[in-house]
């Protein structure tokens, strides 16, 4: 089945530094990648949608300058949390979809990245 | 009103019980219905997928969609402790790639 590899699985960083999270689709081409944030015991909150080769579309309330998304190829998308602060500590998950028939296959999620900013 | 409503639980049942998880929705345009299972500190994994109305069975899992009532269900038979997880329902509209997720129900199966 389709696999999305997400790294790192967890990261601790100091306040003010930047952290990059990578998601790679291993056996399919992810034309679209969704990035989510999840707080403990809560559902997924969509942050942004990225399509290969174009700028990401951010959901209302998400700072595009803080959460930089790059989707340079059909198999790689990255989320960079810039100038991280403790309130950015959360679980970040990516999800790749294939083409226009994406809903026929559902989403393929990465395993998530737990970010702790100290 | 949220587009998709799901009771967050928590729901705790004994091993071997039949579990019923449900979601209601308000958007009649939804045609794709999915259930995801998420273990603690892991990404969600697709469990069941249904297009339009009807039932779908896969092993111990059965997904039901009732579009007239805007209500979907996931049944788990002979529940096992390994089924303990958060279950998220998700729905989509034809032609759109975004899925709308429910809040997720935390389920615990007690040995």
Describe the secondary structure blueprint for this structure:
The complex is a heterodimer of chains A (118) and B (111).
Chain A: E1 4-7, E2 10-13, E3 19-25, E4 32-38, E5 44-51, E6 57-58, E7 67-73, E8 76-81, E9 90-97, H1 102-105, E10 108-109, E11 113-117
Parallel strand pairs in A: 2-11
Antiparallel strand pairs in A: 1-3, 3-8, 4-5, 4-9, 5-6, 7-8, 9-10, 9-11
Chain B: E1 4-6, E2 11-14, E3 19-25, E4 30-38, E5 45-51, E6 54-58, E7 61-66, E8 71-76, E9 85-93, E10 99-101, E11 105-110
Parallel strand pairs in B: 2-11
Antiparallel strand pairs in B: 1-3, 3-8, 4-5, 4-9, 6-7, 7-8, 9-10, 9-11
Describe this structure in words.
The complex is a heterodimer of chains A (118) and B (111). Chain A has one helix spanning 102-105, and strands at residues 4-7, 10-13, 19-25, 32-38, 44-51, 57-58, 67-73, 76-81, 90-97, 108-109, 113-117. Chain A has 118 residues and is mostly beta strands. In chain A, the strands form two sheets. In chain A, strands 2, 4, 5, 6, 9, 10 and 11 form a seven-stranded mixed sheet that branches. The longest helix of chain A has 4 residues, at 102-105. The model of chain B has no long low-confidence stretch (mean pLDDT 93). In chain B, strands 2, 4, 5, 9, 10 and 11 form a six-stranded mixed sheet that branches. A five-stranded antiparallel sheet of chain B has the order 1-3-8-7-6, with no helix packed on it. Chain B is mostly beta strands. The radius of gyration of chain B is 13 Å and the shape is globular.
Number of strands of chain B: 11
User: What count of helical segments of chain B does DSSP give?
Assistant: 0
Give unreliable regions of chain A as ranges: none
> Whole-number average pLDDT of chain B?
93
Principal-axes geometry of chain A comes out as globular
Q: Termini of chain B, distance in Å?
A: 37 Å
Instruction: Report the uncertain regions of chain B.
Output: none
Helicity range of chain B: under 10%
Radius of gyration of chain A (CA) equals 13 Å
Structural class of chain A: mainly beta
Largest sheet of chain A: 7 strands, mixed
Mean pLDDT of chain A: 90
The CA-CA distance between the termini of chain A, in Å, is: 37 Å
Number of helices of chain A: 1
- Biggest interface pair, counts: A-B, 27 and 26 residues
What is the H/E order of chain A? EEEEEEEEEHEE
Number of strands of chain A: 11
Biggest sheet overview of chain B: 6 strands, mixed
**What Rg of chain B, in angstroms, do the CA atoms define?**
13 Å
